[in-house]
Amino acid sequence: MSDISIIIPTKDELNVKNILKDIEKNFKKNEIEIIIVDKSKPEIKRKIKDLGFPVIDQISNGYENALVEGFKRAKSPILATIDADGTYLVKDLKSVILELDKGDYDFISGDRSSGLRKMTFYISFGNKFLTKWFNFLYHRKMHDVLSGVFAMKREVFDKIKYDDAFRAGTLFFEIEAVRRGYRIKDIPISYADRVNTKSRITKSKPIYGFFIAFYSIKYARDYRPLVLFGAIGILLIIAGIIVGALVVQNYFATGVLIEVGRALISFMLIVLGFLSIITGLILDMLLEIEKILLKK
């Protein structure tokens, strides 16, 4: 197995000591580098630092930014992470790394599909919805795009380390990897009950989910414009046709064109719809040119 850097983000999460023990059981000391990126309260931070592993004081905010800070300090050719809350097993992290080590893919994450029943309904629904949205936008067959266990080759991170890590969790790394043409996949893993009763990394899961959905749409605009502008264009055209049909129906019923305003609205909606689709086509073509340049 290649040398590995394992980054563990923590925020008032003392269960990290159990994760560290499991890492030592599953990996040889000479093949791993462990870095904790911590944003805990002072009293908890002291206890985490007393565990005897390198600890970085997180200066930014957010889970994804914690990982970016840790990955930037890491020295190994394989970069990996696992949450500290006990919901993920270290043996599954090892499976993810072994799959990456085969060399067929550049980014591997854990798929918690079989464990989604342990989540609340809205979290489970949100994960499934965002995964389907990601697959639709980027033509992939992922099963879980928000897993807290993943590993990637250093070259992937080196390409994205200066990008702004928007509030989208693991999805940030997956979108950026796919955008640059890297191969990604996920493999089945276990998913356990949280050791603590609530997430320490995110205060509000619904708000966190909103941020992820917002940035997913933003990235669709920036990196899959034909999908977004095409969908908007089609909706505008359909709306224009419906309004126009009402005008035509009234004309045939009365024999007089009295709804000039509606007719103009119909015309404008259809024109805007076609303009939206054309905009998407042009932007999509420019992005294809950008992808070619990025690969060179």
Quick tags:
single chain; 296 residues; alpha/beta; Spore Coat Polysaccharide Biosynthesis Protein SpsA, Chain A; 2 domains; seven-stranded mixed beta sheet; 10 helices; Glycosyltransferase; transmembrane; transferase; transferase activity
Describe the structure in your own words.
Residues 5-160 form the Glycosyltransferase 2-like domain. The protein is α/β, with parallel strands linked by helices and 296 residues long. 55% of the residues lie in helices and 12% in strands. The protein folds into two domains: 4-222, Spore Coat Polysaccharide Biosynthesis Protein SpsA, Chain A; 225-295. The chain has ten helices and seven strands. Strand 2 (32-38), helix 2 and strand 3 (55-57) form a beta-alpha-beta unit.
Please write out the topology.
Layout: E1 4-10, H1 16-26, E2 32-38, H2 42-49, E3 55-57, H3 63-73, E4 78-82, H4 90-101, E5 107-111, H5 121-138, E6 149-153, H6 154-160, H7 170-179, E7 184-188, H8 205-223, H9 225-254, H10 260-295
Helix pairs in contact: 5-8, 8-9, 9-10
**Mind telling me the CATH superfamily name of the largest domain?**
Spore Coat Polysaccharide Biosynthesis Protein SpsA, Chain A
User: What's the main sheet like?
Assistant: 7 strands, mixed
Helix segment tally: 10
Strand order of the largest sheet: 3-2-1-4-6-5-7
Give the helices and strands as they follow along the chain: EHEHEHEHEHEHHEHHH
Q: β content, as a range?
A: 5-15%
CATH class of the largest domain: Alpha Beta
- Specify the overall morphology: elongated
- The residue ranges in which pLDDT falls below 50 over 5 or more consecutive positions are none
Distance between the termini: 30 Å
Kindly report the oligomeric state of this protein. Answer: single chain
Q: Roughly how many Å is the radius of gyration?
A: 24 Å
Mean pLDDT: 85
- Helical percent range? 40-55%
Structural class: alpha/beta
Total of domains: 2
The CATH architecture assignment of the largest domain turns out to be Alpha-Beta Complex
Count every beta strand, where a strand is a DSSP E run of 2 or more residues. 7
Transmembrane segments: 226-252, 264-287
Domain Glycosyltransferase 2-like: 5-160
Keywords: Membrane, Transferase, Transmembrane, Transmembrane helix
GO molecular function, one term: transferase activity
